[in-house]
Amino acid sequence: MPGAAVDEILFAHRKSVVEIVRETYLLHERGETINPDSYFLRFPEKPNARIIALPAKLGGPVEKAGIKWIASFPDNVERGIPRASAVLILNDFENGYPVACLESAGISAARTAASAATAAGALLPLINTTERPSISFVGAGVIARTILDYLVPSVVSPEAITVLDLDGASAEHFVAYAKRGDNVPARESKDLAEVLAGDVVVLATTAGKPYLPDHLEFRPGQLVLNVSLRDLHPATLLRAANIVDDIDHCLKADTSPHLAEQLSGGRDFITGTIGQVLLGKVRPDAGRPVVFSPFGLGVLDIAVGDFVLRTASAQNRTIPIPNFFGSTVRWGASPRPEEK
Fold first, then answer.
1. Over the stretch 172-212, which tens digit does the pLDDT of each residue have?
2. Using CB atoms within 10 A as the burial measure, which of 54, 80, 168, 329 is most buried?
3. How would DSSP label each residue in 176-196?
């Protein structure tokens, strides 16, 4: 499936994608997934670049396995091409055969944005009663724009949108994108303190290590969507209620939660998982700011990719490749009746 068809289906079915991500978190919480560690391929000559393999198996109604292979090359931005590129392979769980290859940069962005929207929808009512909370974005790239699509107005009808990005052109484009028709005041800010004061703060940068100061402390009622995972000093997390998608996955690879574990000597600073919040098993303290840190689970890619594939198949938008497999009958074996 080429990217244009994938992106059109995703944009037309954003509410469905959010519901799929929500249900996948619940399946994960109930142990109906297999989500091993992601594998990071790094390059000494390109220290800021990486390619990540995310294998996973999703049970429930999907019953598929697969793997996302996603490259992040930040220097692409200077070349005028997207930072990230990806493919997703889906495997039939009955026989293990790959059944589809989907362009997956859009799927990856959509599942990330739907994860943020799911968290905001579940957490914000628990900690903030503001009728029209402000939203601030640190980082104005594809992920930030996609999160905006999923948050506004279906989850949050903001009073204002503020964005900060080191690249002024990216910030300007984000502001123009935010003003497309929702009549929400959106503007660029160069004041980091102002941006970090938003009711909902979205961190969506390519930072490789924390750059925000250790004395930074968010106020009670703020929700921080820590999507890029490495902006915050670990001391800031220790002063907040922390919700993650998966504790073991999130506390590794030098993420801010991983550094907070090293700083504190334990995991007691973790309040719980988003699955536990959705099930009502965990309720963060409304007297503290809440930070949601999603490492990004491969099962989300499987779930969203399966939805895109089924939708595209129903619309005859897939591209079949005849005779892709050299042989579908084991040598020397008699074919079963249905194979004749």
1. 999 999 988 666 889 999 999 999 999 999 999 989 899 99
2. 54
3. HHHTSSS---EEE---HHHHT
